[in-house]
Amino acid sequence: MAEQFQAYQIGKSDDGQRCVLTQLDDSDLMEGDVTVRVEYTTINYKDGLALTGRSPIIRKFPLIPGIDFSGSVIESSHDGFSEGDRVILNGFGVGEVHCGGFAQRARVNGDWLVPLPDGLDLRQAMAIGTAGYTAMLSVMALEDHGIKPGDGDILVTGASGGVGSIAVAVLGKLGHRVVATTGRMQERDFLTGLGAADVLDRSQFADKARPLGKELWRGAIDVAGGNTLANVLSQICYGGAAAICGLAESMNLPTTVAPFILRGISVYGIDSVMAPLGKRKQAWQRLASDLDLKLLDELSFDLDFNDLPQAAEDILNGRIRGRAVVKLP
User: Fold this and answer.
1) What is the average pLDDT across 293-318?
2) 18 and 309 in contact (C-beta within 8 Å)?
3) Tens of pLDDT along 208-222?
4) Cβ neighbours, 10 Å, residue 214
5) CA 243/CA 246 separation, integer angstroms
């Protein structure tokens, strides 16, 4: 008899999509050469869109959502993994077109898995999650551009959220002077505790951007898009760069070519979904060494598995600070 497990499953009908907590078994999982006992997961902005149906994140039905998980290998025919190995998964369409982490079991392609790096445990991996992994990819892009501590201020937008909060913490530990933006100025102490030297209200970036503004930022990590990103780009110093990884404000970018051709700035698009394995492993190793793991207690909180649907609404409405960690029952 197939072993049953708890899972959220999203189905679709003429009335729209619906998410239910149900009992499934291994026959409900998709193809893959590694089966994992999911021990922890988390909720990201994309998961919020998937669970609520506000955006067509789910492209195959029925589907188990959840773009992240960490856990232990139960069964493997993949050369790289054996029973008992501890692993992390981010991206590769999991939780979008392949059953994901909001379940007690997952079956995936072993090429999508990253071994848990030394220095991290499975809970810490999900306190970091795709958000933190994306933050580190963004930091690495600025470093590859040649930006070093002491070169000038680094701006992080949406700093109270998952990507932003970990970006602030990593950049601060590396010695950069970080300026954070947030729509929740009551979080100032939280952000300065993570390493921000200054905190700005995001409303300062809400108006239509001028082609060129005052040069303020040597680099930036942006999760917002829209007018926020347009204003940020107009304020990047000559030869600076922005790493862009989100669209929390808008997918649109109402800017001009002026910052690019008059100040020689660069923009790096950060794709966490299909990033190659080598870059993934590097990012996770860097997180184990360059993120103050003591700050994860400040950055994260425990969320009950049964509360994921409400958390989906909360994350889309800006009511979640930092990272939610879900231990599978």
Assistant:
1) 93
2) no
3) 999 999 999 999 999
4) 9
5) 10
Pick the CATH number of 130-269 from 3.40.50.920, 3.40.50.720, 3.40.50.880, 3.40.1500.20: 3.40.50.720
- Angle at CA of residue 222, ends 221 and 227, nearest 5°: 140
- Tokens representing 92 are 């590769």
**Does the domain at residues 4-116+292-327 carry the CATH identifier 3.40.50.12780?**
no
pLDDT(1) > 70: no
Domain boundaries along the sequence of the chain: 4-116+292-327, 130-269
Residue 290: what are its φ and ψ, rounded to 5°?
A: -105, 0
Among 233, 226, 228, 229, residue whose Cα is nearest residue 211: 233
Which secondary structure element, helix H or strand E, spans residue 42, and what is its range?
strand 34-42
Structure tokens given for 36: 């994992």
Beta bridge partners of 243: 221, 268
What would the pLDDT profile of 78-94 be if each residue is shown by its tens digit? Answer: 999 999 999 999 999 99
Buried b (16+ CB within 10 A) or exposed e, 70-97: bbebbebebeebeeebbbbbbbbebbbe
CA 97 → CA 66, 91, 192, distances in Å? Answer: 11, 10, 39
| Tokens linked to 174 | 């590396």
Which residue bears the tokens 């808008």?
Answer: 250
> Do you know the residue count of the chain?
329
* Residue entry with tokens 């800017």: 255
Tell me the mean pLDDT in the region 294-299. Answer: 86
How far is 10 from 63, CA to CA, in rounded Å?
Answer: 5
